[in-house]
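Incident log, support desk, overnight shift.

02:14 A customer reports that sequence design results differ from what the structure should imply. Their input is reproduced verbatim below. On-call engineer (initials T.W.) acknowledged and began investigating.
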């Protein structure tokens, strides 16, 4: 079932250029099999009209005046959600409503007031890991690694410690990411070696390199047989014969 913006049923709305722009919508809970809903380019302020539309998979609410999305968590089947160009200011409240949507893959939130927050995109990716297309751009593996480093220092520590046989606390930090301190930078010289376990790196390869520098050094020494004179050379007693050399190989 598909519904478009062609109904007011006594609800508020006004004409603009001969086209009705809705400010309110009737309760749509009776449309149990509703799968697609277009209500973009209206003047809606909320979405309380969607409560029991469990089959809804695509919802287009862009270009409205929506300032809160309370009730969206009741749409578990939602796969595509367009909320760009609205008036959303509470990024935490928005994420809270969307967290339970395990099927949500495509999400547009650009041109909302909270999009001006620093690290907005990574914050959304961190809290909604199932989203694959955000604001018309594919979510990359590099962004997923970056959001772990920025918003979850404990998990970043675990990732960096993989393959080094170290047992760590695997609990996740559930505090607000916006309150976290900035990622630590690796110190220099001796401090680099003593604090490598505590530092958080932007690139896991940097962590691997730093930790490898802490490993024990092994040295192997052997005779360089190319410098040992043969019997003929000894018999001739050639002048200028080079002394025997030793080769040393150092491994870390």
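02:41 Re-run completed on a clean worker. Output:
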């Amino acid at each position: 079932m598909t519904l478009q913006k062609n109904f007011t049923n006594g609800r508020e709305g006004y004409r603009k250029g001969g086209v009705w722009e809705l400010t309110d919508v009737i309760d749509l809970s009776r449309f149990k099999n509703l799968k697609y809903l277009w209500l973009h380019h209206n003047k809606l302020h909320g979405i309380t009209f969607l409560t029991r539309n469990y089959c809804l998979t695509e919802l287009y609410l862009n270009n409205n005046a929506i300032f809160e999305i309370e009730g969206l968590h009741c749409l578990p089947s939602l796969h595509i959600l367009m909320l760009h160009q609205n008036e959303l200011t509470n990024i935490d409240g928005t994420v809270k409503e969307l967290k339970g949507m395990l099927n949500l893959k495509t999400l547009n939130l650009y041109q909302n007031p909270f999009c001006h927050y620093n690290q907005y995109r990574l914050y959304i990716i961190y809290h909604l890991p199932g989203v694959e297309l955000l604001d018309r751009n594919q979510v990359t593996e590099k962004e997923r690694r970056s959001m772990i480093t920025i918003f979850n220092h404990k998990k970043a520590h675990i990732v960096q410690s993989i393959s080094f046989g170290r047992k760590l606390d695997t609990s996740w930090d559930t505090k607000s990411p916006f309150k976290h301190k900035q990622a630590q930078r690796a110190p220099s010289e001796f401090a680099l070696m003593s604090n490598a376990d505590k530092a958080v790196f932007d690139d896991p390869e940097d962590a691997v390199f730093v930790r490898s520098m802490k490993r024990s050094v092994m040295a192997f020494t052997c005779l360089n047989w190319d410098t040992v004179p043969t019997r003929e050379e000894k018999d001739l007693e050639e002048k200028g014969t080079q002394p025997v050399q030793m080769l040393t190989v150092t491994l870390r």
